[in-house]
Amino acid sequence: MASSGGRRLTSSAVSLTASSGDPGSLSAARCVVTGGLGFIGSNLVHALVHAGASVAVVDALVEGHGGTPHNIAGLDVEVVGVDIGDPAVREILRDADVVFNLAGQVSHIDSMHDPLRDLQLNAISHAAFLEHLRSVNPGARVVHTSTRQVYGIPGDAPVDETHTTRPVDVNGVAKLAGEQLHSVYARAHGMAITSLRLTNVYGPRQRLTSDHVGFLPVFFRKALHGQRIEIYGDGTQRRDCLFVSDVIDAIVAATADHVAGEVFNVGSRRDESLGSIAKLIVEATGSPGGVALVPWPEEEQRIDIGSFRTDSTRIHEALGWRSRVELADGIAATVDFYRGDAWYLSST
Q1: Of 202, 308, 311, 316, which sits 20 to 30 A from 80 (CA to CA)?
Q2: Best CA proximity match to 175, nearest among 217, 145, 206
Q3: Domains of the chain
Protein backbone atom coordinates (compact mmCIF):
# COMPACT_ATOMS: atom_id res chain seq x y z
CA MET A 1 0.00 0.00 0.00
CA ALA A 2 1.26 3.46 -0.86
CA SER A 3 2.32 5.66 2.02
CA SER A 4 3.91 8.83 0.68
CA GLY A 5 2.84 11.26 3.41
CA GLY A 6 0.93 14.50 3.00
CA ARG A 7 1.43 17.03 0.24
CA ARG A 8 -0.40 20.18 -0.82
CA LEU A 9 -1.31 20.69 -4.46
CA THR A 10 -2.10 24.05 -6.01
CA SER A 11 -2.42 25.12 -9.63
CA SER A 12 -3.51 28.14 -11.62
CA ALA A 13 -5.22 25.93 -14.22
CA VAL A 14 -8.99 26.16 -14.58
CA SER A 15 -11.12 22.99 -14.61
CA LEU A 16 -14.71 22.37 -15.60
CA THR A 17 -16.96 21.64 -12.64
CA ALA A 18 -19.26 18.81 -13.66
CA SER A 19 -21.59 19.04 -10.68
CA SER A 20 -24.90 20.80 -11.05
CA GLY A 21 -25.60 20.27 -7.34
CA ASP A 22 -25.54 22.95 -4.68
CA PRO A 23 -23.56 21.81 -1.64
CA GLY A 24 -23.95 25.26 -0.09
CA SER A 25 -24.99 23.70 3.22
CA LEU A 26 -21.39 22.49 3.53
CA SER A 27 -19.79 25.86 2.75
CA ALA A 28 -18.40 26.19 6.28
CA ALA A 29 -17.62 22.51 6.74
CA ARG A 30 -14.32 20.69 6.95
CA CYS A 31 -14.72 17.81 4.46
CA VAL A 32 -12.54 14.76 3.82
CA VAL A 33 -12.91 12.93 0.50
CA THR A 34 -11.27 9.52 0.15
CA GLY A 35 -10.53 8.55 -3.43
CA GLY A 36 -10.67 12.27 -4.15
CA LEU A 37 -8.22 12.12 -7.06
CA GLY A 38 -10.41 9.61 -8.91
CA PHE A 39 -13.42 10.07 -11.16
CA ILE A 40 -16.38 10.64 -8.84
CA GLY A 41 -14.22 11.84 -5.97
CA SER A 42 -12.58 14.64 -7.93
CA ASN A 43 -15.93 15.88 -9.23
CA LEU A 44 -17.14 15.99 -5.64
CA VAL A 45 -14.01 17.88 -4.58
CA HIS A 46 -14.63 20.50 -7.30
CA ALA A 47 -18.23 20.96 -6.12
CA LEU A 48 -17.25 21.28 -2.46
CA VAL A 49 -14.38 23.70 -3.06
CA HIS A 50 -16.50 25.90 -5.31
CA ALA A 51 -19.15 25.99 -2.57
CA GLY A 52 -16.57 27.28 -0.08
CA ALA A 53 -15.92 24.13 1.93
CA SER A 54 -12.49 23.27 3.31
CA VAL A 55 -11.47 20.00 1.64
CA ALA A 56 -8.81 17.40 2.28
CA VAL A 57 -8.26 14.40 0.02
CA VAL A 58 -6.99 10.94 0.92
CA ASP A 59 -5.87 8.98 -2.13
CA ALA A 60 -3.16 6.34 -2.46
CA LEU A 61 -3.03 6.75 -6.25
CA VAL A 62 -3.26 3.00 -6.70
CA GLU A 63 -1.93 2.17 -10.15
CA GLY A 64 -4.58 1.58 -12.79
CA HIS A 65 -7.46 3.19 -10.88
CA GLY A 66 -7.48 6.51 -12.70
CA GLY A 67 -6.64 8.72 -9.76
CA THR A 68 -4.48 11.68 -10.78
CA PRO A 69 -3.65 15.18 -9.50
CA HIS A 70 -4.74 16.39 -12.96
CA ASN A 71 -8.33 15.81 -11.84
CA ILE A 72 -8.12 18.58 -9.24
CA ALA A 73 -5.85 21.01 -11.07
CA GLY A 74 -6.74 24.56 -10.11
CA LEU A 75 -7.94 23.68 -6.61
CA ASP A 76 -6.18 24.53 -3.35
CA VAL A 77 -6.80 21.36 -1.35
CA GLU A 78 -4.75 19.24 0.99
CA VAL A 79 -3.83 15.82 -0.41
CA VAL A 80 -2.62 12.97 1.79
CA GLY A 81 -1.16 10.22 -0.37
CA VAL A 82 -1.81 7.11 1.70
CA ASP A 83 -4.14 4.13 1.68
CA ILE A 84 -7.29 4.82 3.68
CA GLY A 85 -6.33 2.09 6.14
CA ASP A 86 -3.01 3.77 6.98
CA PRO A 87 -2.83 5.18 10.54
CA ALA A 88 -1.69 8.49 9.00
CA VAL A 89 -5.32 9.24 8.09
CA ARG A 90 -6.21 9.71 11.76
CA GLU A 91 -4.89 13.25 11.85
CA ILE A 92 -6.79 14.33 8.76
CA LEU A 93 -9.98 12.75 10.12
CA ARG A 94 -9.69 14.27 13.57
CA ASP A 95 -11.30 17.63 12.76
CA ALA A 96 -13.56 16.55 9.87
CA ASP A 97 -17.21 17.53 9.93
CA VAL A 98 -18.16 15.36 6.94
CA VAL A 99 -16.32 12.35 5.52
CA PHE A 100 -17.08 11.17 1.99
CA ASN A 101 -15.65 7.66 1.70
CA LEU A 102 -15.42 7.03 -2.05
CA ALA A 103 -12.18 5.03 -2.17
CA GLY A 104 -12.15 1.60 -3.80
CA GLN A 105 -11.38 -0.65 -6.72
CA VAL A 106 -14.12 -0.93 -9.37
CA SER A 107 -12.92 -3.43 -11.97
CA HIS A 108 -14.90 -6.66 -12.03
CA ILE A 109 -12.36 -8.44 -14.25
CA ASP A 110 -9.39 -7.32 -12.15
CA SER A 111 -11.16 -8.59 -9.04
CA MET A 112 -11.33 -12.06 -10.57
CA HIS A 113 -7.66 -11.98 -11.58
CA ASP A 114 -6.49 -10.82 -8.14
CA PRO A 115 -9.23 -11.42 -5.58
CA LEU A 116 -7.08 -10.83 -2.51
CA ARG A 117 -6.08 -7.37 -3.72
CA ASP A 118 -9.71 -6.47 -4.37
CA LEU A 119 -10.74 -7.64 -0.91
CA GLN A 120 -7.89 -5.64 0.61
CA LEU A 121 -8.83 -2.43 -1.19
CA ASN A 122 -12.61 -2.69 -0.86
CA ALA A 123 -13.07 -4.37 2.53
CA ILE A 124 -9.98 -4.69 4.75
CA SER A 125 -8.79 -1.12 4.19
CA HIS A 126 -12.31 0.13 4.89
CA ALA A 127 -12.42 -1.78 8.17
CA ALA A 128 -9.17 -0.11 9.22
CA PHE A 129 -10.47 3.27 8.04
CA LEU A 130 -13.65 2.95 10.08
CA GLU A 131 -11.60 2.05 13.17
CA HIS A 132 -9.41 5.11 12.65
CA LEU A 133 -12.49 7.29 12.33
CA ARG A 134 -14.18 5.73 15.36
CA SER A 135 -11.11 6.27 17.48
CA VAL A 136 -10.57 9.97 16.68
CA ASN A 137 -13.87 11.39 15.40
CA PRO A 138 -16.90 9.09 15.78
CA GLY A 139 -19.28 12.05 15.49
CA ALA A 140 -18.35 12.91 11.90
CA ARG A 141 -21.07 12.62 9.28
CA VAL A 142 -20.15 9.90 6.75
CA VAL A 143 -21.38 9.15 3.24
CA HIS A 144 -20.05 5.94 1.70
CA THR A 145 -20.38 4.88 -1.95
CA SER A 146 -21.21 1.27 -2.73
CA THR A 147 -22.42 -0.25 -6.02
CA ARG A 148 -25.42 -1.91 -7.63
CA GLN A 149 -23.04 -4.83 -8.33
CA VAL A 150 -23.86 -6.11 -4.81
CA TYR A 151 -27.20 -7.39 -6.17
CA GLY A 152 -25.73 -9.71 -8.78
CA ILE A 153 -28.15 -11.04 -11.39
CA PRO A 154 -31.46 -9.20 -10.92
CA GLY A 155 -34.53 -11.30 -10.31
CA ASP A 156 -36.92 -8.39 -10.76
CA ALA A 157 -36.83 -5.10 -12.62
CA PRO A 158 -36.48 -2.45 -11.44
CA VAL A 159 -34.28 -3.49 -8.50
CA ASP A 160 -35.00 -1.90 -5.13
CA GLU A 161 -33.11 -2.14 -1.83
CA THR A 162 -35.08 -5.21 -0.69
CA HIS A 163 -33.63 -7.29 -3.55
CA THR A 164 -31.37 -10.16 -2.51
CA THR A 165 -27.66 -9.34 -2.53
CA ARG A 166 -25.90 -12.16 -4.37
CA PRO A 167 -22.79 -10.82 -6.17
CA VAL A 168 -21.42 -12.69 -9.19
CA ASP A 169 -17.81 -11.53 -8.89
CA VAL A 170 -15.22 -10.83 -6.20
CA ASN A 171 -15.62 -7.08 -6.63
CA GLY A 172 -19.30 -7.34 -5.74
CA VAL A 173 -18.49 -9.49 -2.70
CA ALA A 174 -15.81 -7.07 -1.49
CA LYS A 175 -17.99 -4.00 -2.09
CA LEU A 176 -20.85 -5.63 -0.19
CA ALA A 177 -18.49 -6.45 2.68
CA GLY A 178 -17.31 -2.83 2.74
CA GLU A 179 -20.90 -1.58 2.74
CA GLN A 180 -21.90 -3.93 5.55
CA LEU A 181 -18.91 -2.84 7.61
CA HIS A 182 -20.20 0.72 7.38
CA SER A 183 -23.65 -0.49 8.45
CA VAL A 184 -22.17 -2.33 11.44
CA TYR A 185 -20.32 0.79 12.59
CA ALA A 186 -23.50 2.81 12.19
CA ARG A 187 -25.53 0.39 14.31
CA ALA A 188 -22.99 -0.79 16.87
CA HIS A 189 -21.12 2.46 17.43
CA GLY A 190 -23.83 5.00 16.68
CA MET A 191 -21.88 6.58 13.84
CA ALA A 192 -23.86 8.66 11.34
CA ILE A 193 -23.19 6.75 8.11
CA THR A 194 -25.22 6.54 4.91
CA SER A 195 -24.31 4.24 2.00
CA LEU A 196 -25.26 4.77 -1.65
CA ARG A 197 -25.42 1.95 -4.20
CA LEU A 198 -24.45 3.63 -7.46
CA THR A 199 -25.36 2.48 -10.94
CA ASN A 200 -23.21 3.00 -14.09
CA VAL A 201 -21.73 6.48 -13.74
CA TYR A 202 -20.16 8.51 -16.56
CA GLY A 203 -18.95 12.02 -17.23
CA PRO A 204 -15.88 14.28 -17.02
CA ARG A 205 -12.64 13.11 -15.36
CA GLN A 206 -13.36 9.41 -15.84
CA ARG A 207 -10.43 7.24 -16.79
CA LEU A 208 -10.75 6.30 -20.47
CA THR A 209 -7.67 4.23 -21.20
CA SER A 210 -8.62 1.01 -19.39
CA ASP A 211 -10.90 -1.72 -20.74
CA HIS A 212 -11.70 -2.96 -17.23
CA VAL A 213 -13.53 -0.10 -15.48
CA GLY A 214 -16.88 -0.36 -17.22
CA PHE A 215 -18.29 -0.18 -20.72
CA LEU A 216 -19.05 3.55 -20.81
CA PRO A 217 -15.45 4.89 -20.74
CA VAL A 218 -14.53 2.28 -23.36
CA PHE A 219 -17.36 3.46 -25.62
CA PHE A 220 -16.30 7.09 -25.22
CA ARG A 221 -12.63 6.38 -25.86
CA LYS A 222 -13.24 4.40 -29.00
CA ALA A 223 -15.71 6.90 -30.42
CA LEU A 224 -13.44 9.85 -29.66
CA HIS A 225 -10.62 8.05 -31.47
CA GLY A 226 -12.89 7.22 -34.42
CA GLN A 227 -12.69 3.51 -33.66
CA ARG A 228 -15.46 0.94 -33.79
CA ILE A 229 -17.43 0.34 -30.60
CA GLU A 230 -17.83 -3.38 -29.99
CA ILE A 231 -20.77 -4.68 -27.98
CA TYR A 232 -20.84 -8.20 -26.60
CA GLY A 233 -23.89 -10.23 -27.56
CA ASP A 234 -26.92 -8.82 -29.37
CA GLY A 235 -26.84 -5.25 -28.00
CA THR A 236 -30.21 -5.52 -26.24
CA GLN A 237 -28.79 -5.72 -22.71
CA ARG A 238 -30.03 -2.71 -20.75
CA ARG A 239 -28.42 -0.33 -18.25
CA ASP A 240 -29.41 2.89 -16.50
CA CYS A 241 -26.55 5.37 -16.85
CA LEU A 242 -26.08 8.25 -14.44
CA PHE A 243 -24.26 11.49 -15.22
CA VAL A 244 -21.72 12.34 -12.54
CA SER A 245 -23.37 15.64 -11.54
CA ASP A 246 -26.48 13.69 -10.53
CA VAL A 247 -24.28 11.44 -8.38
CA ILE A 248 -22.71 14.47 -6.69
CA ASP A 249 -26.20 15.79 -5.94
CA ALA A 250 -27.11 12.48 -4.29
CA ILE A 251 -23.87 12.28 -2.28
CA VAL A 252 -24.32 15.81 -0.92
CA ALA A 253 -28.02 15.24 -0.21
CA ALA A 254 -27.14 12.08 1.73
CA THR A 255 -25.38 14.17 4.40
CA ALA A 256 -28.83 14.97 5.83
CA ASP A 257 -29.01 13.80 9.44
CA HIS A 258 -32.35 12.02 9.11
CA VAL A 259 -30.96 9.41 6.66
CA ALA A 260 -28.04 8.32 8.84
CA GLY A 261 -27.93 4.52 8.94
CA GLU A 262 -29.73 4.12 5.61
CA VAL A 263 -28.67 2.43 2.37
CA PHE A 264 -30.04 3.88 -0.87
CA ASN A 265 -30.00 2.97 -4.54
CA VAL A 266 -28.86 5.79 -6.80
CA GLY A 267 -29.78 5.25 -10.44
CA SER A 268 -31.23 6.93 -13.49
CA ARG A 269 -34.96 7.23 -14.09
CA ARG A 270 -34.52 5.61 -17.51
CA ASP A 271 -32.66 2.62 -18.85
CA GLU A 272 -31.42 2.08 -22.41
CA SER A 273 -30.02 -0.81 -24.41
CA LEU A 274 -26.25 -0.93 -24.88
CA GLY A 275 -26.88 -0.62 -28.61
CA SER A 276 -28.82 2.61 -28.11
CA ILE A 277 -26.19 4.01 -25.73
CA ALA A 278 -23.40 3.26 -28.20
CA LYS A 279 -25.37 4.87 -31.04
CA LEU A 280 -25.85 8.07 -29.01
CA ILE A 281 -22.12 8.26 -28.30
CA VAL A 282 -21.25 7.68 -31.97
CA GLU A 283 -23.68 10.42 -33.00
CA ALA A 284 -22.31 12.85 -30.40
CA THR A 285 -18.71 12.32 -31.51
CA GLY A 286 -19.37 11.94 -35.24
CA SER A 287 -17.21 8.84 -35.09
CA PRO A 288 -16.75 6.98 -38.41
CA GLY A 289 -16.10 3.75 -36.51
CA GLY A 290 -19.73 2.91 -35.87
CA VAL A 291 -20.93 -0.02 -33.75
CA ALA A 292 -20.50 -3.77 -34.15
CA LEU A 293 -21.84 -6.80 -32.28
CA VAL A 294 -19.19 -9.35 -31.27
CA PRO A 295 -19.24 -12.65 -29.35
CA TRP A 296 -18.87 -12.64 -25.58
CA PRO A 297 -15.37 -13.32 -24.20
CA GLU A 298 -15.68 -16.24 -21.79
CA GLU A 299 -14.25 -14.42 -18.75
CA GLU A 300 -16.67 -11.53 -19.26
CA GLN A 301 -19.76 -13.63 -19.87
CA ARG A 302 -19.38 -15.78 -16.77
CA ILE A 303 -19.69 -12.72 -14.48
CA ASP A 304 -22.23 -10.80 -16.54
CA ILE A 305 -25.48 -9.87 -14.77
CA GLY A 306 -27.70 -9.30 -17.81
CA SER A 307 -29.98 -6.27 -17.95
CA PHE A 308 -30.30 -4.03 -14.90
CA ARG A 309 -32.61 -1.16 -13.98
CA THR A 310 -32.40 0.67 -10.66
CA ASP A 311 -35.37 1.59 -8.50
CA SER A 312 -34.40 4.84 -6.73
CA THR A 313 -37.81 5.44 -5.11
CA ARG A 314 -36.48 5.33 -1.54
CA ILE A 315 -33.90 8.09 -1.95
CA HIS A 316 -36.47 10.21 -3.79
CA GLU A 317 -38.96 9.82 -0.96
CA ALA A 318 -36.36 10.43 1.75
CA LEU A 319 -34.36 13.25 0.17
CA GLY A 320 -36.25 14.42 -2.91
CA TRP A 321 -33.36 13.27 -5.11
CA ARG A 322 -33.87 11.97 -8.62
CA SER A 323 -31.70 11.95 -11.72
CA ARG A 324 -32.01 15.12 -13.81
CA VAL A 325 -29.55 14.85 -16.70
CA GLU A 326 -30.92 13.12 -19.78
CA LEU A 327 -28.58 10.60 -21.37
CA ALA A 328 -28.13 12.50 -24.65
CA ASP A 329 -27.33 15.71 -22.76
CA GLY A 330 -24.86 13.98 -20.46
CA ILE A 331 -23.13 12.31 -23.39
CA ALA A 332 -22.81 15.66 -25.18
CA ALA A 333 -21.32 17.30 -22.08
CA THR A 334 -18.89 14.41 -21.63
CA VAL A 335 -17.72 14.58 -25.24
CA ASP A 336 -17.23 18.34 -24.94
CA PHE A 337 -15.13 17.88 -21.81
CA TYR A 338 -12.76 15.33 -23.33
CA ARG A 339 -12.39 17.30 -26.53
CA GLY A 340 -11.40 20.26 -24.38
CA ASP A 341 -8.80 18.24 -22.46
CA ALA A 342 -7.30 15.53 -24.67
CA TRP A 343 -4.91 14.55 -21.86
CA TYR A 344 -7.53 12.07 -20.67
CA LEU A 345 -7.42 10.14 -23.94
CA SER A 346 -3.80 9.17 -23.48
CA SER A 347 -2.62 9.76 -19.93
CA THR A 348 -4.93 8.10 -17.38
Answers
A1: 202
A2: 145
A3: 3-202+242-269+310-325 (3.40.50.720)
| Distance between CA atoms of residues 49 and 53, nearest Å | 5
Residues 6+ apart with CB under 8 A from 219: 229, 277, 278, 281
Going by C-alpha positions, the residue among 223, 199, 238 that lies closest to residue 290 is 223
β-pair type (291-294, 229-232): parallel
Measured CA to CA, the distance from residue 211 to residue 231 in angstroms comes to 13
Plot region of 190 (φ>0 → left; ψ -120 to 50 → alpha; else → beta): left
Q: Are 113 and 125 in contact (CB under 8 A)?
A: no
Cβ-contact 66, 348 below 8 angstroms: yes
Q: How many CB atoms lie within 10 A of CB 224?
A: 22
Rounded to the nearest 5°, which phi and psi values hold at 90?
-60, -40
DSSP type of residue 152 = B
What crossing angle do the helices spanning 39-50 and 244-253 adopt, rounded to 10°? 60
Bond from prior residue into 23 cis (ω within 30 degrees of 0): no
Residues 6+ apart with CB under 8 A from 336: none
- Mean pLDDT, contiguous 10-residue spans, the chain (348 residues): 31 28 79 97 97 96 84 95 96 97 90 93 97 98 97 92 95 96 98 97 93 88 96 94 97 96 97 97 98 92 90 96 97 97 79
